[in-house]
Write a structure and sequence with these properties.
Helix content is about 5%, strand content about 40%. With about 130 residues, the protein is mainly beta. Pfam families: GFA.
Length: about 130
């Protein structure tokens, strides 16, 4: 894989460059991620904040997760795409929501782990 790899929101107003591979990639089956993805799960790449650069205007929305942790989300104010999540108590970790657009190998964003499977939809089978 050649770095940086790049991505953007749907309208292109927010862009990013990822300089290193994600630490891991999660398929989250919690009900909040099902809402976010409008599907059975949401894919999240866990990356170090120092390994990614963002350009463009971002808005923020926060909520308290079931775990009790504060979960903040950055999104594009034009198209509404979620860009990333983060825990304000762990600013070094970015939970990237957008798939890069210039990947030679899309396996870099294949989930390495399924989480919150107790909330998964009954018809979705995990391996």
């Amino acid at each position: 894989m050649k770095y940086p790899i790049e991505g953007s929101c749907q309208c292109g107003q927010v862009t990013y460059q990822l300089h290193k591979a994600p630490k891991k990639v999660l398929a989250c089956h919690c009900t909040e991620c099902q809402k976010l993805a409008t599907g059975p799960f949401s894919v999240t790449a866990i990356v170090s904040a120092r390994d990614i650069e963002f350009q463009g205007e971002l808005k923020e929305w926060s909520r308290v997760a079931e775990s009790g942790n504060k979960n903040s989300a950055k999104f594009c104010p034009t198209c509404g795409n979620r860009i990333y999540h983060y825990n304000p108590n762990d600013a070094d970790t970015i939970k990237l929501k957008l798939k890069p657009v210039n990947m030679e190998d899309d396996n870099i964003f294949a989930p390495t782990e399924h989480v919150w499977i107790e909330d998964k939809l009954s018809w979705y089978k995990t391996s």
